[in-house]
Amino acid sequence: MKVITTIKEMQSEIIEQKMNQKSIGFVPTMGFLHEGHLTLLRKAREENDIVVLSIFVNPLQFGPTEDFSTYPRDIERDQALAESVAVDYLFFPAVTEMYPSPSSVRVMVQERTDVLCGKSRPGHFDGVATVLTKLFNIVMPTRAYFGNKDAQQVAVVDGLIQDFNFPIELVAVEIVREEDGLAKSSRNVNLTAVERSQAKVLYVSLTEAKRAIDQGERNVAKLKALITEIIDQESAAKIDYVEILSYPRLMPIEALEGTFIMAIAVKFSKVRLIDNFILTIKNESAGLRR
Ligand code: AMP
To answer: In what order do the strands lie in the sheet with 258-267?
Structure first.
């Protein structure tokens, strides 16, 4: 595995690989790798000749009161984990390499940002889209791998790839969870012991809502109330949002139909956690017609 810190070197390595007709699988991350990231990397390894992992905690996508400075970092551990899944290139640029001077152009996301994390984290998806535009131009991937844990991000990246005509195949990967159901996240280490035991409530509440849906519940307001009640009863977390929207368009719905997302964000003392289920209900009215 080659560790590369400059944009120039990364680009010239990729250009050489591309001249040799190699396909490039790319997994952009903020590091402090866990099994979720490794799952993306293994899939990229299976499907491409060359695998590139980037580790960059992107200041542009953090708000002024968010956890940029306390975001966990451990590059040596990450390097060993990346080696263990046969990454070819680890791209690990400094902030000054990615943003040498205040940027003269930024990418602005127009759609789907007035809901979920876009609503509570203003500017977040502009920061994500800007850094990904740069990373896509640096790594020039054939396929880029993203986790459904950040389902809104997947939808936004899909828009970015289509609108800006990146010749990249977007691959979305299922959420990887801890044994108690908590979605794996680099931020989980910043939970206190008590918070960590309560944090499974995100998965538990979504599972209960799914059970209600399986039993015939179709009322969005009732399902949101059920999720909210479980989180409030079983944890000290403060709810940021509980939403049920169409997916991937992220439009409001009143009754469940087609593919939709049940998404939650909660805040513990130092950590904001998110989780979601993406579900599909086949057209039921067809069956009811006489
Ligand atoms: P991050 O380092 O948190 O920015 O995540 C980098 C990539 O890994 C993103 O595409 C995430 O959606 C994905 N990811 C993070 N956690 C998980 C998880 N538990 N399961 C699947 N993918 C994940």
So the answer is: 238-246, 258-267, 272-281
Token pair for 34: 């866990």
Q: What is the pLDDT of residue 286?
A: 55
Among protein residues, the one whose CA lies closest to atom 18 of ligand 1: 36
Residue 260 near residue 246, CB atoms below 8 Å: yes
**Omega into 248 within 30° of 0, i.e. cis?**
yes
| Count, residues in the chain | 290
Q: How many CB atoms lie within 10 A of CB 136?
A: 20
The answer to whether residue 37 is catalytic is yes
0.85 surpassed by pTM: yes
Query: Residue 231 Cα, ligand 1 centroid: separation in angstroms?
Result: 23
Distance from C-alpha of 167 to C-alpha of 102, rounded to nearest angstrom: 28
Distances (CA, A) of 204 to 180, 214, 250: 9, 15, 23
**Contact in structure between 261 and 244 (CB atoms under 8 Å):** yes
User: Residue 282 in contact with residue 137, Cβ under 8 Å?
Assistant: no
Phi, psi of 79 (to 5 degrees): -60, -45
Tell me the residue type at 123: G
What the block records as the tokens of 111 is 């759609």
Residue pLDDT, tens place only, 181-191:
999 999 999 99
Q: Are 76 and 276 in contact (CB under 8 A)?
A: no
